[in-house]
Structures are given as structure tokens and as C-alpha cells.
Amino acid sequence: MDNRTIPTKQGQICLCITEEPGIAITDEVIITDFIIPEDKNALIIVVILTELQRKSSEPDKVERHKVSISNLNVIANDLVSYVESWNHKPKKFENEINEVEDVMAFFHSIHERYSLEWHSDDDFKDFLDENGNRSFDDIEAQELNNKMVACFQFCDDNDLDIYELAGEVQIKIWKQQGLWKDNNKQA
Q: Which of 85, 116, 126, 151 has its CA 20 to 30 A from that of 61?
């Protein structure tokens, strides 16, 4: 495996070269994963190079070729151009988790924005919509997972039970929906 990190106006791109298959994004590059690192200031793209198919100038003909490690600089330049064409920068949290109200507001926003029934131990990349498609792309899921980790950390640091807070939010939502009776039982 060979690696190279390239600075761009979008952040850092990390090229990881292996022989595993992936999703073809350009003729030269296969991108299999997007990761937002801890500092949330850099975009890291894990790039997997393998045998690629390139369309020939002749219709219905496909040329197969192997991308070698020696072509890394050319591939890196192509990838930088491709990424910079997106005008994409990973989202940062608009408000950090600094108090219990931030935790509860985040939990409530998950329901309000996404209409999800969720558990605080769930990984957002595993959520599926009614058609069986992923509810969040890798970047959104990582962003939500990072914020959930921040909630856990805040609760641990302040001797709060995150599950009780999540339960309070769920009961409040059920009350708003008329699904919770006054005698503290679900309708």
C-alpha cells in the first residue's frame, strides 16, 4: 500500500493505493469512502486503484488497463481537480455540545429534521429509509455520529445519563404527538 496526502483549497486529500475494487468516479480514480477526521478541518478521501475500464473511441468497445503506483502524481492531480470542482467543504457543527440543553436539542433535532425513531447507540450510517436506501450519505452519517460522540462525552464529563436525556426527549415528542398519557404511559 502506498499513501500520499495532498493539500487543496478544500482541505487534505489522502490517497491510499491498494488493489481492492471500488466505485469509479473518473477514468483514472476510484473513490470508495469519504471520512471527516477528528479536527473536522480536512476532507480525506480514501482512493482505491485497481483494474479500470476505459471507454474506447470506438462504440461498444472497452479498454482495460491497470493503474500503477508510478502514475500516482498524475492521478493525484486529476483527483485534486475533480474534488476542487465540487466546491465542497465538510460541514462543521454550528453549535458544539456545551450544556445539557445542547444535548437535548440535538436529540430533538434528529426527530424533527429526519423523523427518525432512534437510539443513542445507533450508527447513523445504518439508517435506511422506507425504500431500503441509506438515509444519510457517509459525510452526513459521520457528522451526526461525531455529534453523538460529543453528546456522550459531555454526559460522561458531567455525570449525566445520556439514556435518561434521550428518554425525556422521546417522551416530550410523544406528548406533542398525543401518544403519551398523563399517567406516564405510552398511549
A: 85
Domain borders along the chain are 2-84, 100-176
Cβ-based neighbours of 5, under 8 Å, separated by 6 or more: 12, 13, 14, 15
2 pairs with which residues across the strands? 17
C-alpha cell at position 81: 481537480
Q: What is the pairing mode between strands 30-35 and 51-55?
A: unpaired
d(CA 151, CA 121): 11
d(CA 75, CA 48): 11
| CA dist., res. 79 & res. 183, Å (int) | 60
CA distances to 26, 79, 147, 153 from 116, in Å: 35, 35, 16, 23
- Strand order, beta sheet including 44-47: 23-24, 30-35, 44-47
Question: Whole-structure pTM over 0.85, yes or no?
Answer: no
List pLDDT tens digits, range 83-124. 555 444 433 444 578 899 989 988 888 877 776 677 778 888
Contacts of residue 28, defined as CB under 8 A and 6 or more positions apart, other chains included, come to 52, 67, 71, 74, 75, 78, 79
pLDDT tens string 74-91? 555 665 565 555 444 433
State the Cα–Cα distance between residues 20 and 25, nearest whole angstrom. 15
Cell of 124: 447513523
Helix or strand holding residue 27 (H, E): none
